[in-house]
Specification:
- This protein has ten helices and 16 strands.
- It is of the alpha/beta class and 409 residues long.
- The strands form four sheets. Strands 1-2-4-3-5-16-6-15 form an eight-stranded mixed beta sheet, with helices on both faces. The chain has a four-stranded antiparallel beta sheet with strand order 10-12-8-13, covered by helices on one side.
- Helix content is 32%, strand content 25%.
- The relative contact order is 0.21.
Length: 409
């Protein structure tokens, strides 16, 4: 581990035995994970998943509220003494994939799969709620458990924020924490960094209009295809010449479409792609420059251009102080050998960013590469063959509970 390790596990601390207790809940954790995995649901409306979570929480001293705009679920645990509130989050939606893992609890829906591990997030958060309920006498304040639909591009966190999840305990939560499982990291390894952890994600759509005609007589047309092709190079050049290498951006043109057959010059061509940045300043710069570049290139070819940038998730930014605290907690709960300070952010995106824009907090990755597999060779998150080592889940359960216990001592 590269980072602070000065919070050891000592007898009598709130963390003594926490990981062992999380392991003792493994049968419950696995059962919920597999039930959700068998019946994945996509988007903002996940009634079966919501019902499974309610059943898993049954009997715990929780104040449970269901979402109105979505099938979210918020649960509040009151400690034995008054104090602030903290938020723990787990997302619960699946992806549009046909599973090919061969698991005996594989998805029964050929059009949906928990390929990003949200089934494990749900299970870990539910078991963390159980661990904390058993330790209510150690809590001076409240814990808000945020079971969130619609992370995969549907802005589910924003819906829950609008419906009051940050104030569910009666006062604004003072800090927040979440864990995301990764198939390409060693099982049980907790990884995070202060500052930007994951990128923003915006998409762009460009329509180039010229004048169609016969492919044998291009002089009588205004061909949008070479204009669109020139835009690809111009956009990549824009990134290297307008964006600082110390505050980087990634722009990828991922779809080009034009024409219907070999002997017709089409009237229109379309480009689409993604923009990823690690700061809101660079994000704003690229979003402003992209339409200008496309319009000016189009004008040089005599084409009309409409270029739109569709806002996606913001940059996921960990609070420096809280990230350092999570690193120390990880060393205390999991052992320093199981905690890693990430050198670089990931360019994927995450809508927990909406929470971290409003509340100081941290997001961490939890490795779950299957035994005997090289993490570099393992099927990755979002693959329809991805596998997660369920033995990593107690580490996530324990870290979620430790975060609340530490904050509400």
């Amino acid at each position: 581990m590269t980072g602070p390790t000065d919070l050891p596990t000592l007898p009598g601390t709130p963390f003594a035995g926490l990981l062992d207790d999380a392991r003792a809940l493994q049968d419950r954790t696995v059962a919920l994970r597999r039930a959700v995995h068998r019946h994945p649901e996509q988007g903002l409306h996940l009634p079966r998943t919501q019902a499974a979570i309610r059943e898993a929480l049954d009997g715990l001293p929780l104040e449970i509220t269901e979402g109105k705009a979505t099938t979210s679920l918020t649960a509040v645990l009151r400690g034995s003494r008054p104090g602030p509130s903290v938020l723990l989050r787990g997302d619960m939606d699946a992806l549009p994939l046909t599973e090919e893992t061969g698991l005996d609890f594989a998805s029964e829906d050929p059009e949906s799969m928990h390929a990003c591990g949200h089934d494990t997030h749900v299970a870990m958060l539910a078991s963390a709620a159980r661990l904390l309920a058993e330790r209510r006498d150690q809590l001076a304040g409240s814990v808000v458990f945020m079971f969130q639909p619609g992370e995969e591009g549907h802005h589910g966190a924003r819906f829950m924020i609008h419906e009051g999840v940050l104030d569910a305990a009666g006062t604004r939560v003072e800090r927040a924490f979440g864990v995301h499982i990764l198939a390409n990291a060693p099982s049980g390894l907790l990884q995070l960094r202060p500052g930007p952890l994951m990128a923003s994600a915006d998409s762009f759509h460009v329509r180039v209009t010229g004048k169609g005609g016969h492919g044998s007589a291009p002089q009588h047309t205004i061909d949008p295809v070479p204009a669109a092709a020139a835009m690809v190079g111009a956009l990549h050049t824009m990134i290297t010449r307008r964006v600082s290498v110390f505050d980087p951006a990634v722009l990828s043109v991922t779809r080009i479409q034009a024409g219907t057959t070999t002997n017709i010059i089409p009237e229109t061509a379309e480009l689409e792609g993604t923009i990823r940045t690690l700061s809101e300043q660079t994000r704003a710069l690229v979003r402003a420059e992209l339409p200008k570049v496309c319009e000016q290139v189009g004008a040089a070819y005599g084409c009309r251009v409409v270029a739109d940038v569709e806002p996606g998730y913001p940059v996921t930014v960990n609070d420096d102080r809280i990230a350092a605290e999570v690193l120390r907690l990880g060393a205390a709960v999991l052992g320093p050998e199981n905690v890693e300070l990430l050198a670089d952010p990931l360019m994927g995106a995450e809508d927990f960013s909406y929470v971290l824009q409003r509340v100081p907090g941290a997001y961490a990755f939890l490795g779950a590469c299957p035994p005997g597999v090289d993490p570099a060779e393992a099927a990755a998150n979002h693959s329809n063959r991805v596998l997660f080592d369920e033995d990593a889940m107690p580490s996530g359960v324990a870290m979620l509970a430790a975060f609340a216990l530490d904050a509400l001592r």
